[in-house]
From TrEMBL:
GO terms for molecular function: DNA-binding transcription factor activity. SUPFAM superfamilies: Winged helix' DNA-binding domain. Coiled coil: none annotated. This is ArsR family transcriptional regulator. Pfam families: HTH_20. Residues 13-120 form the HTH arsR-type domain. InterPro entries: ArsR-like_HTH, HTH_ArsR_DNA-bd_dom, WH-like_DNA-bd_sf, WH_DNA-bd_sf.
Length: 198
C-alpha cells in the first residue's frame, strides 16, 4: 500500500476494520467495478444482502467507503457505494504497534483471498498458465538485494500499482498480490524495536 497522490492515509483502526475476508471482498469489488449497491454486491459475492449490512456500515463508519448516490428501484431507492480512495497508504498506521499488528492481519486475509482465487483459476480448463497471454502465475524468489536493487524493485512495485489503479474498464479482471520481506536466517531472531504510539 504505497503512498500515491490523493491516497488515503490509513489509521490503525481503519487497518483493523479491513482485516475481514468479507470487507476485503467488498473493497476489492468496488475497486474493480467503481460503484455498487448492496444487492449488486450480494449477487457478486454470493451472500445474502442481510449478511453485508454490518460490513458496509463498518466500512462507511471508518471512512473506507462512501455513499456515492442512490439508485431507484421498484421498491425503494438503494444506496450506491464507492471507495473513498483507490490508493491506500499504511505508512502512518504502521508507526504504531497496533498498526503493525493490524497490517499483519490484513496481509493474512489478502493472501488467503489470493490463494482461493489462484486455486479456483488453476482448476479451470481454460486457465492460461503459459505464454505472453497467461493470466495465472506464481513466483517465489529468494535472492540477495543491495540498496540499489531494493530501490529498483520498489520502483517496479510502484509502477505495477500505478498501472493497476489507472486500468481501463475493458479487459479481464485481474488479481495481483505482491509480498516482499527479508528472508529469515536460521537461528536468527529479529530485534524488536520499541516504537511510540497507542
Amino acid at each position: 500500500m504505497s503512498k500515491q497522490p490523493n491516497s488515503l492515509n490509513l489509521t490503525p483502526a481503519q487497518l483493523k476494520v479491513m482485516a475481514s475476508s468479507m470487507r476485503l471482498a467488498i473493497l476489492q469489488h468496488l475497486e474493480a467495478e467503481g460503484e455498487a449497491t448492496t444487492k449488486e454486491l450480494a449477487t457478486q459475492l454470493e451472500r445474502p444482502a442481510t449478511a453485508l449490512y454490518h460490513h458496509l456500515d463498518q466500512l462507511v463508519r471508518h471512512g473506507l467507503i462512501r455513499v456515492a448516490g442512490q439508485r431507484e428501484t421498484e421498491r425503494r431507492p438503494e444506496a450506491v457505494y464507492a471507495l473513498v480512495s483507490r490508493q491506500l497508504s499504511s505508512s502512518k498506521a504502521v508507526r504504531t504497534p497496533s498498526g503493525r499488528k493490524a497490517l499483519i492481519e490484513v496481509a493474512s486475509r489478502v493472501l488467503a483471498s489470493s490463494l482461493r482465487a489462484f486455486s479456483a483459476a488453476v482448476a479451470q480448463a481454460a486457465a492460461r498458465l503459459e505464454g505472453p497471454g497467461r493470466h495465472v502465475a506464481i513466483r517465489h524468489l529468494v535472492f540477495r538485494a543491495d540498496r540499489q536493487r531494493l530501490m529498483q524493485i520498489n520502483e517496479w512495485i510502484d509502477s505495477l500499482e500505478n498501472m493497476a489503479t489507472s486500468s481501463s474498464a475493458d479487459g479481464e479482471g485481474m488479481l495481483l498480490t505482491i509480498v516482499m520481506a527479508p528472508r529469515a536466517m536460521p537461528g536468527h531472531r529479529p530485534v524488536r524495536r520499541r516504537t511510540q504510539g497507542d
